[in-house]
Design goal:
- It is a single chain.
- The protein is an alpha+beta fold.
- The protein has one domain (7-333): Jelly Rolls (Sandwich).
- The chain contains 8 helices and 14 strands.
- The termini are far apart.
- The mean pLDDT is 92.
Length: 336
């Protein structure tokens, strides 16, 4: 099945000034008009991609009781394993199992004046039976952070801003998240929800999908278009914080995922590149032509406005996506 998403070759940034400028122009056009694109030529080692997919399969093949030792109900930071049906999008059940892996840090000591979003900072839950998962996940975070920061610098230049406009937001304790997901086959004649329609709440997402698999759909001009995997490519989309930084010139786009056909499954690994929790995203001053084409901010399907501080958005999402974890660890926030 062909796709309508643009395909951008990252290696053009190293092919001379003219090619680099052309890449930045294509990047700007794709994320103003669609908000999604395929990224090839990204330089992430094929062996690392294969290692990640292999260790992901081995994680989901662990006995259920081993995975449940890591269940996210044991983590105030919403890390670890989520069983099938354990996450919601706008109140509807997402049919997937997953493990969430964030930056490996100590939990923040909370005082009466500590912003609530610092509750998300803390350690991961790792499977003792599969130590390779931590090794590969940490390499993945390092490599995709490199690609993501270079993309942000290309966007800044394409928008007429200094190349380092976003650097400070990611200089100290960036809050990247890797989500390793398995979708069990549930779709027959009627497609079943894997993940409901939503916009990503962070800055930038790079998605790896197993070769030959499909299920992602992207909203474009009022219609849903399919975005199947392309060998060697990441599916890239911007989140609400980058839309906020550009006054809506760059577009955070609705997307959703269907479960694969009955009798099959699919591994997907979205990597969310986000700044430190206390970051207030810089607002870029666009030139008049670009500013005149900015559409303002998207309206969230739940009518929740985009908040200035990244951590406020991240915490709000976790609380509504995992009400069971919130009930155990953050009951004091549920009435707010």
């Amino acid at each position: 099945m062909s796709s309508s998403l643009p395909i951008l070759d990252f290696s053009r940034l190293d092919a001379g000034a003219d090619e680099a400028a052309a890449f930045r122009a294509d990047l700007l056009r794709a994320t103003h008009e669609v908000g999604f694109f395929y990224l090839v030529g990204h330089g992430v080692d094929r062996e690392l991609i294969d290692d990640l997919l292999d260790v992901s399969r081995r994680f989901f093949d662990l006995p259920t009781d081993e995975k449940l030792k890591l269940e996210n109900v044991h983590s105030p930071q919403f890390r670890g394993y989520t069983r099938v049906g354990g996450e919601l999008t706008h109140g509807d059940v997402d049919w997937r199992e997953q493990i969430d892996i964030g930056p490996e840090r100590d939990a923040v000591e909370l005082t009466p004046g500590t912003p609530d979003y610092w509750r998300l900072e803390g350690p991961n839950l790792w499977p003792e039976a599969l130590p390779e998962l931590q090794q590969v996940a940490e390499r993945w975070n390092e490599e995709l952070s490199r690609v993501s920061l270079r993309l942000l610098r290309a966007w800044a230049l394409s928008l007429g801003a200094p190349e380092d406009s976003f650097d400070e937001a990611f200089a100290d304790k960036p809050f990247a998240l890797t989500k390793i997901v398995r979708y069990p086959g549930e779709s027959g004649a009627e497609r079943k929800q894997g993940v409901g329609a939503h916009r990503d709440g962070g800055v930038l997402t790079l998605l790896l999908v197993e070769p030959g698999k499909e299920g992602l759909q992207v909203e474009f001009n009022g219609e849903w278009i399919d975005a199947p995997s392309i060998p060697g490519a990441f599916v890239v989309n911007i989140g609400e914080m980058l839309e906020l930084a550009t006054g809506g010139y760059l577009k955070a786009t609705l997307h959703k995922v269907f479960s694969p056909p009955i009798g099959s499954d699919r591994i997907s690994v979205p990597f969310f590149f986000n700044p430190a929790l206390d970051t207030v995203m810089p607002r870029l001053e666009l030139d008049p032509e670009l500013a005149g084409a900015a559409r303002g901010l998207s309206v969230d399907p739940t009518n929740s406005p985009i908040l200035d501080t990244y951590g406020d958005n991240a915490l709000r999402y976790r609380l509504r996506a995992h009400p069971n974890v919130a009930e155990i660890h953050h009951q004091d926030l549920l009435g707010q």
